[in-house]
Design a protein that fits this description.
alpha+beta, 5 helices, Arsenite efflux transporter metallochaperone ArsD, Glutaredoxin, 130 residues, four-stranded mixed beta sheet, Arsenical-R_ArsD
């Protein structure tokens, strides 16, 4: 598995999925990265406001921000090489860079669909859990 790191702009929390106006792109990224983590794949996220030293100690990221400004964020680094900047990678790229095969991705998608269709917390059962 490759080492995948995302250097993100300053956000109010570690994922940016908070507050009254949730960014749908951040929601997609956070959801998919959680799914990957459930499969044993870890993608590291650095937030400029809470992890500024990560930006300083990575020369390529630091140089990119110095030359292009924070508009270059988010920056995705795979095995020490910048692979994407200015936007988040697709789910397919995340999965590929995390070392997943096509079969791994299909299993993950099927498992997620099965969990979604099962009703989650059995709200329809009258248990009052929701």
């Amino acid at each position: 598995m490759s080492k995948v790191e995302i250097y993100e702009p300053a956000m109010c929390c570690s994922t940016g999925v908070c507050g009254p106006g949730v960014d749908q792109e951040l929601l997609r990224v956070s959801t998919f990265l959680n799914e990957l983590e459930g499969e044993g794949r870890k993608i590291i996220r650095y937030n400029l406001s809470s992890d500024p030293m990560a930006f300083v100690t990575n020369k390529e990221v630091n140089d990119t921000i110095a030359n292009e400004g924070t508009e270059a964020l988010p920056i995705t680094v795979v095995d020490g090489e910048i692979r994407q900047k200015g936007s988040y990678p697709s789910n397919a790229n995340f999965a590929e860079w995390a070392g997943m095969t096509r079969e791994d991705i299909l299993k993950m998608v099927l498992k997620t669909q099965k969990a979604s269709s099962s009703g989650g917390c059995s709200c329809g059962s009258g248990s009052g859990c929701c």
